[in-house]
Amino acid sequence: MATTVQTGSAVHQAERYDNSRVSEALYRLLLYGAVILGGIVFAIPFYWMMRTSVMPTTQVYLFPPEWWPERFEWHHFKTPFAVFPFAKFFLNSTFIAAGSAIGAALSSSVVGFSFARLRFPLRDIMFVVVLATMILPEHVRLVPTYLLFVELDWIGTYRPLIIPNWFAPAFYVFLMRQFFMTIPKELDDSAMIDGCNPIGLFWRIHLPLSLPALGVVLIFMVTAQWNDFLYPLIYIQGVPNYTVALGLRLFEGHMTNNMQALMAASILGVLPTIILFFFAQRHFVQGIVVSGVKG
What we know:
By secondary structure, the chain is an all-alpha fold. It folds into two domains: 17-72; 76-291, MetI-like (MetI-like fold, Orthogonal Bundle). It is built from 14 helices and no strands. The chain has helices at residues 2-53, 57-60, 79-83, 86-117, 123-132, 142-151, 159-162, 170-181, 185-193, 198-209, 211-227, 230-235, 244-254, 259-291. Helix 4 (86-117) packs across helix 8, helix 4 runs antiparallel to helix 13 and helix 13 runs antiparallel to helix 14. The longest helix has 52 residues, at 2-53.
């Protein structure tokens, strides 16, 4: 009798195990299907740009639209450089994005380390004040900031687009502070016993360990500065000083009837940020995950 009961229990457990495996397989199938479907949906606009940029004019405005060109016309990618100094636009955007990203990474890491590891009066209150600045809309600060840059004689230069990012933007301070909070304090104690001061602690211990979070800051800042349209429009003067975003808008005004050249210019404009993400996506994902572990 006991043997029969044990056999029935084993069969029941085996059935439950099989059911759980089927449920898990079904869950993964639905999850992967949703991810693939979402990827296709988000990839369609980029494919549409690429398809239009190399498509003959006779196919562009057909309805219903054709998804594959009859022949590939790559010469449309030369048009932006022939009409405007797009190479100069790329250099200008690269200079602004690189300068802003380096400044934001260095300054936010120092301030984030201070809030995470150093003890000083009103530390937590000051951190809340820093976070509160993110609530203030940028458009509210636009006029007083512009008047300040007028007094500094910075209008018409790249300084209003780069130098403010060297003063620890609040979001990146929060990101770096959250990352530093995940580093074990035993490392700090060991370094202090060995005679390391706070500057050495930051430079030798915390900064090398924070490369994933710094990668996130660099990606975010480069992407934001590369795609920014409003502030370059306000502060930059003269077509040779334009960024890619301003150049695309200028090109759109001159090439309204040339959809292929417009799409080619758009692809060239977004391609650097896409390449950057694909090369740095491992650090990007790791930094995002680790930075949100501890509050």
